[in-house]
Amino acid sequence: MVLTIHLLAFLIAPVAVLACEGECIIGITNEFLNLYSSPISNALQNMASLSNLSPYLPNIHNGDVHQADQIDAKIVPPSGRRQDAISYFTPVLTAYNKTAYTELRDAIFPGYFHGKCQNANGVDPPGCPNPDCAKVCGTPGSLVHFYDTLEMIVFNQTRGLLTDLTSPGSKTYKQVQAMVLADASKGERRALSKVPRSAKLPTRGTTKARKNLQDIMKNFPAMMMNVCGGDDLSQCSWETDMKRFILQYP
């Protein structure tokens, strides 16, 4: 009889629901960073060079992003252009890689998913582990249940960080600008050396080049949205694969 009571107590006891902590947080954050490496590269490449436009630009002709808004087309003469124009953004990518993990992790945990389902006394908050509770639990199940929200958090954080790094006044913007202007000047010198002194060859000018670069860089948020497939983020969702990845954690 005693054994039966103990068995029943075990069967009706609440099952412990583990929060996404430790390896779960590290793994999910890193997986999103890995997945975003290609869209980020495509967005920056599209801003750098006409010759490497990404196929994932459904709105490139509707006014959101203009096909001529590339550094190669508007600033650097042909004789000064690089084969790897995306290298202009090396300072941006270096700075991004230094802070992306911490900022994305914090945006997810505890920015929205609070991590633990139980408080310090081992008591579940009201509704947890029900994924619809007012205070969103940080379990793998909740991450999957609220995947649309998780997807948007990751996109907004990624685009926001890179927008800051490509904004005029930032250290990384100034580094990009220095490289672009140097190549523009070099290209113009090469072009001038090939024409008679009496001929007049229009130059792009440093002031105009600076303005053109600002115009190009301010397009980054729209470019990133386009590369990701527009408002539904169809190219930056990875919903099926990510849900499977998340649920591997207990």
Distance between the termini: 34 Å
Q: How much is the radius of gyration in Å?
A: 25 Å
Give the amount of beta strand, in percent. under 5%
Which spans have pLDDT < 50 for at least 5 consecutive residues? 1-17, 50-69, 189-193
**What global shape is seen?**
elongated
Any idea how many domains?
A: 1
Question: What do these coordinates show?
Answer:
By secondary structure, the protein is mainly alpha-helical. It has helices at residues 2-12, 23-48, 71-74, 90-108, 140-145, 147-165, 171-193, 206-217, 220-227, 239-246. It has one domain (19-53, 73-117, 125-193, 204-247). It is built from ten helices and no strands. The chain starts with a helix and ends with a helix. The relative contact order is 0.17. Residues 1-19 form the signal peptide. Keywords: Signal.
